């Protein structure tokens, strides 16, 4: 009888992690182990993912299919190696097939204020994760990187060959971790790793059962707009940081992609780490590669405000204030390589992202809190 491959997802209860787990379960090929310290996530998200996956099982589902909808969830902290080692010990040497490493602190502005916290959490903890993986013969990793590794890129859309030159401590933690993973793959050819550089995930699962629910005031634009429309953020006016950038309407442009498209990209990357993978030439100096995930088409802050106005019916007011440190005028991906080599696509448009986000937020005004 076929068996499921055990896959560990760090940050599994978070926005990206929960949707990645859902798509992993949909393949019926993986058993998911989630680790999360719930710093910016809610364990209730995992219960909903499991419920969603179970509801989609066919009536004649096999035992393996049913097992694939269960999540082995652990509340633990990547900065505490003994907690992570305990999870690997549960499965033994070779027991975990691969890791999708998503957990990280991710606010650009905050990283400029508390850089040491970001380096400890995003870089040091990744090193100890890799050491523990090595100890337990787990040598496949999909790393959730970021478009911030490019800093202010010379060319738009941005190809993967662009030099890495991050402008913020957060971006630098991503460059450092990518470099460490690549060096490790170069030193030991049993390692295989793919790094996914992506832009701005948006939207929610179309059912409205899971979505983006940051703790505290949202640091990202779309969840902030959703919280304003639902009455959780009382600000009457949205502050827009700068309208004098070299972009069509002067506000920052970002490459938004639907969270479900992004989650599928992670699973495609994980599949590409299998033994029959064609993404690495046999003579490659290291089995490491980076891919951009995005739509290849940017949208501005003001375009997003308008799209959310349509989706929610809420009359947003905004005022332009000064630029924010660390912001880059335009980050738009060139996702051609991922399309060609991984079969990645991001068909959902901005309207769909806003509709799905609002569907989640309006059904769950308090997110994963008490309804």
Task: Enumerate the strands of the largest sheet in spatial order, edge to edge or round the barrel.
Answer: 3-2-1-4-5-6-11
| Unreliably modeled segments | none
Mean pLDDT: 95
Share of β-strand residues: 15-25%
The quaternary structure here is: single chain
N-end to C-end Cα span: 43 Å
Structural class: alpha/beta
The best one-word shape is globular
The helical percent reads 25-40%
Element-level helix/strand string: EHEHHEHEHHEHEEHEEEHEEHEEHH
For the sheet with most strands, the description reads:
7 strands, parallel
Radius of gyration, taken over Cα atoms and rounded to an integer in Å: 20 Å
Q: How many strand units? A: 14
Catalytic activity: UDP-alpha-D-glucose = UDP-alpha-D-galactose
Cofactor: NAD(+)
GO molecular function: UDP-glucose 4-epimerase activity
Pathway: Carbohydrate metabolism; hexose metabolism; Carbohydrate metabolism; galactose metabolism
Structure in words:
With 371 residues, the protein is α/β, with parallel strands linked by helices. Helix content is 39%, strand content 17%. The chain is built from 12 helices and 14 strands. The protein has helices at residues 15-26, 44-55, 63-68, 81-91, 108-113, 115-135, 169-187, 221-230, 259-271, 301-312, 336-342, 350-363; strands at residues 5-10, 30-36, 71-75, 98-101, 140-144, 192-198, 200-202, 237-241, 253-254, 256-258, 288-293, 299-300, 317-321, 330-331. It has a 7-stranded parallel β-sheet with strand order 3-2-1-4-5-6-11. Strands 12-9-14 form a 3-stranded mixed β-sheet. The longest helix has 21 residues, at 115-135. This is UDP-glucose 4-epimerase. InterPro entries: Epimerase_deHydtase, NAD(P)-bd_dom_sf, UDP_G4E. Residues 7-272 form the NAD-dependent epimerase/dehydratase domain. Keywords: Carbohydrate metabolism, Galactose metabolism, Isomerase, NAD.
């Amino acid at each position: 009888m076929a068996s499921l491959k055990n896959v560990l997802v760090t940050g599994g209860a978070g926005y990206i992690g929960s949707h990645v787990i859902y798509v992993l379960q949909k393949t019926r090929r993986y058993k998911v182990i989630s680790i999360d310290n719930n710093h910016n996530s809610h364990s209730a998200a995992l219960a909903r993912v499991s419920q969603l996956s179970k509801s989609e099982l066919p009536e004649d589902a096999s035992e393996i299919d049913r097992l694939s909808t269960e999540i082995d969830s652990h509340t633990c902290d990547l900065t505490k190696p003994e907690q992570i080692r305990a999870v690997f010990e549960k499965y033994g040497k070779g027991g975990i097939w691969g890791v999708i490493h998503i957990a990280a602190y991710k606010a650009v502005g905050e990283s400029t204020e508390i850089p040491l916290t970001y380096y400890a959490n995003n870089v040091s903890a990744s090193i100890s994760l890799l050491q523990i993986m090595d100890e337990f013969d787990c040598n496949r990793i999909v790393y959730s990187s970021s478009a911030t590794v490019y800093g202010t890129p010379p060319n738009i859309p941005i190809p993967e060959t662009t030099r890495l030159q991050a402008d913020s401590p957060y971006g630098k933690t991503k460059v450092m971790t990518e470099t460490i993973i690549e060096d490790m793959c170069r030193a030991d050819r049993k390692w295989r790793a793919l790094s996914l550089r992506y832009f701005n995930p948006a939207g929610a699962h179309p059912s409205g059962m899971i979505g983006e629910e940051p703790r505290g005031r949202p640091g990202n634009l779309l969840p902030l707009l959703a919280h304003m429309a639902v009455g959780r953020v009382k600000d009457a006016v949205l502050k827009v940081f700068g309208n004098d950038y070299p972009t069509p309407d002067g506000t920052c442009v970002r490459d938004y992609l639907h969270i479900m498209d992004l989650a599928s990209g992670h699973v495609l990357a994980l599949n590409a780490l299998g033994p029959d993978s064609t993404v690495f030439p046999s003579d490659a100096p290291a089995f490491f590669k980076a891919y951009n995930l995005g739509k290849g088409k940017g949208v501005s802050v003001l375009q997003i405000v308008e799209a959310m106005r349509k989706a929610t019916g809420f009359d947003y007011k905004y005022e332009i204030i000064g630029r924010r440190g660390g912001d880059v005028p335009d980050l738009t991906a060139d996702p051609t390589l991922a399309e060609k080599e991984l079969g990645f696509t991001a068909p959902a448009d901005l309207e769909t992202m806003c509709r799905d986000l609002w569907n989640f937020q309006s059904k769950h005004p308090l997110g994963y809190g008490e309804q």
